[in-house]
Amino acid sequence: MKVQRTIKYEEELNRNFPHEVADYPGGENLWDCIQCGTCSGTCPVSLYMDHTPRKIIAMIRGGFKDDVLKSFTIWICSSCYACTVQCPMTIKITEIMYSLKRMAIDSGYFPKKFAIPVLAREFVEMVKKNGRVNEGLLTTKLMLKTEPFKMLKSASLGIKLMRAGRMNMFASEKIRKPEEITKLLDKLEEK
Amino acid sequence: MIEKEYAYFPGCSLKGTARGYEESLLQVFSTLGIKMKEIDDWNCCGATFYMSVDEMLSFTLSCRNMALADKMGGKMVIPCAACYLATKKTKDYVQKYDTIGGKIRGALNEVGLKYSDKVQLKHPVEILHDDYGLKELSSKVKKSIEHLKVVPYYGCQLVRPYTDVDDPMHPSIMDKVLSALGAKVVNYPLKTRCCGGSLMGTIEDIALRLNYILLKEAVERGGNCIAVLCPLCQFNLDCYQDEINARYNANFSIPVMYFTQVIGMALGLDKEKIGLQRSLVPADSLLR
Ligand code: SF4
Ligand code: SF4
Ligand code: SF4
Ligand code: SF4
């Protein structure tokens, strides 16, 4: 049997990482965590995660930057805030998960064609252009970019929704002044 | 009674997959005499996807909506739970973090808008419960809905993380509204357990299982319909029942209604008027 070390040597850790996370709004009291595990216990999807929420907090504090940002956990989190309202130390775990998602997107730390960042980006583009979102079009674009084969399976649901008047791919959901949105967002990016 | 007119923010879903929610909300409010006007030229609130890509953009989008609502008197109605949370979080952060607030105010200025922190955010269920009143509501019942055994499903975004609507894990505000109308409300411990939200579009395997658990518990507890307050909860629980049945060898066929549709039934409104025909699991067996 070959023995393998599962945690990192000190020199492989990123000492600055916990401070980066704590600097985001909502990350302030990261250091108060008492590792009680309440978050993992309440989380409805922790059993699908590679690292539970409690462990993620510990890993952030330890400086395991790569492992945290590569983790599936941050994408499986559905932002339901159950952990946040139950945490005895009022740590905003959900907001921390959001910050980690943003960090992972910014530094390209996720599997290619992985649906969530693709969906997020498509969403942003659509809002930038139209000010609103057409859900049917959004999901179609997502599938084309990630799993074109799923289109066939989902087509029957799409047809049912169209029949019920709940989906119209050609309706242009658009605000009257989309340029106002563009201007607003450009202004933000300037500063 | 309510004097003031509300500024209505529909959000994208109520114009698309959740049309039945909008239809029933408008019908119910006008029947009850609650005045409400759609915000002119509102934009998407940015909700969760924006939050994961760029929080500032999301905050700015919500601030534009609040600035528009402010011009209409500042009482904003938000029926989509995800929009509701995104807007509420924005309001909170703009107040708490000067860096965020300052930047956004500046950007809004540029397009001639002004953000005011006096805007009040309300979900329709709060308006009915707090402003309209349960007594008044129960006096408006035209048709008995006593045969409904309603499973109250709140989902997560309406009651969390801000806890000013109700208890974040065991809310009862919708239970009270529906009981006031004569429906039997089922005791449902999973009422705030998340359905997975947009995971249905991204990691379907997880979302199907979550919804299977919710449906199974609803049926085992004796419910004959589920009432929801969020477009996405309705979508997941209603539109995937076939697939869930196939995958888990089940035979669910339980109607999932927006709570405003249940109210519409009690007010004696036609099925088509409250968009019940748009549900994929038909509610016809419950219509009397
Ligand atoms: S619930 Fe809070 S204190 Fe407990 S492990 Fe999770 S984050 Fe730490
Ligand atoms: S917010 Fe995320 S981590 Fe927290 S309980 Fe919900 S799914 Fe789990
Ligand atoms: S939360 Fe969803 S429905 Fe509400 S405005 Fe945003 S995208 Fe549209
Ligand atoms: S759709 Fe799911 S994730 Fe969204 S509010 Fe409802 S329960 Fe929560």
TrEMBL record, chain A:
<dbReference type="InterPro" id="IPR017896">
    <property type="entry name" value="4Fe4S_Fe-S-bd"/>
</dbReference>
<dbReference type="Pfam" id="PF13183">
    <property type="entry name" value="Fer4_8"/>
</dbReference>
<dbReference type="GO" id="GO:0016491">
    <property type="term" value="F:oxidoreductase activity"/>
</dbReference>
<dbReference type="InterPro" id="IPR017900">
    <property type="entry name" value="4Fe4S_Fe_S_CS"/>
</dbReference>
<keyword id="KW-0411">Iron-sulfur</keyword>
<feature type="domain" description="4Fe-4S ferredoxin-type">
    <location>
        <begin position="24"/>
        <end position="54"/>
    </location>
</feature>
<dbReference type="GO" id="GO:0051539">
    <property type="term" value="F:4 iron, 4 sulfur cluster binding"/>
</dbReference>
<dbReference type="GO" id="GO:0005886">
    <property type="term" value="C:plasma membrane"/>
</dbReference>
<protein>
    <submittedName>
        <fullName>Heterodisulfide reductase</fullName>
    </submittedName>
</protein>
<keyword id="KW-0004">4Fe-4S</keyword>
<dbReference type="InterPro" id="IPR009051">
    <property type="entry name" value="Helical_ferredxn"/>
</dbReference>
<dbReference type="InterPro" id="IPR051460">
    <property type="entry name" value="HdrC_iron-sulfur_subunit"/>
</dbReference>
<dbReference type="GO" id="GO:0046872">
    <property type="term" value="F:metal ion binding"/>
</dbReference>
<keyword id="KW-0408">Iron</keyword>
<keyword id="KW-0479">Metal-binding</keyword>
<keyword id="KW-0560">Oxidoreductase</keyword>
UniProtKB/TrEMBL annotation, chain B:
<feature type="domain" description="Cysteine-rich">
    <location>
        <begin position="6"/>
        <end position="85"/>
    </location>
</feature>
<keyword id="KW-0560">Oxidoreductase</keyword>
<dbReference type="InterPro" id="IPR004017">
    <property type="entry name" value="Cys_rich_dom"/>
</dbReference>
<dbReference type="Pfam" id="PF02754">
    <property type="entry name" value="CCG"/>
</dbReference>
<feature type="domain" description="Cysteine-rich">
    <location>
        <begin position="153"/>
        <end position="238"/>
    </location>
</feature>
<protein>
    <submittedName>
        <fullName>Disulfide reductase</fullName>
    </submittedName>
</protein>
<dbReference type="GO" id="GO:0016491">
    <property type="term" value="F:oxidoreductase activity"/>
</dbReference>
<dbReference type="InterPro" id="IPR051278">
    <property type="entry name" value="HdrB/HdrD_reductase"/>
</dbReference>
